[in-house]
Design brief:
Blueprint (H helix, E strand, L loop, with lengths): L8 H16 L7 H17 L5 H13 L5 H15 L2 H10 L1
Helix pairs in contact: 1-2, 1-5, 2-3, 3-4
Length: 99
């Protein structure tokens, strides 16, 4: 039986920061507040380019911004929601770079 690796804020940042940063032309974020800010900026860039999905990046940013204010027992659910919102990031970024 295989175990799934729990979603953490650090894993989310590590997985998506480089792609998100490539949309806005900045170095990849290394912490959660900076990553959430880059997600919001990238969402604007995607929307302005006519690429669907920018709202998903903005949604993920909302979940990640509020994470610190939640009790520990609620944080995993919000991390999962953020990860779900980011699942199509690679496709959105690839489309952006084709524009």
């Amino acid at each position: 039986m295989s175990q799934t690796t729990p979603i953490t804020a650090e894993r989310i940042v590590a997985k998506y920061a480089t792609a998100v940063a490539s949309v806005i032309g900045e170095p990849p974020a290394t912490n959660l507040p900076d990553f959430a800010a880059q997600l919001r900026t990238a969402a604007v860039h995607l929307d302005r380019s006519g690429i669907n999905g920018g709202d998903e990046l903005d949604t993920a940013a909302l979940y990640l911004n509020d994470l610190h204010a939640l009790p520990a027992d609620k944080q995993q659910a919000w991390l999962e929601q953020a990860a779900e919102s980011l699942k199509d990031t690679a496709d959105m970024v690839a489309e952006y770079h084709l524009c």
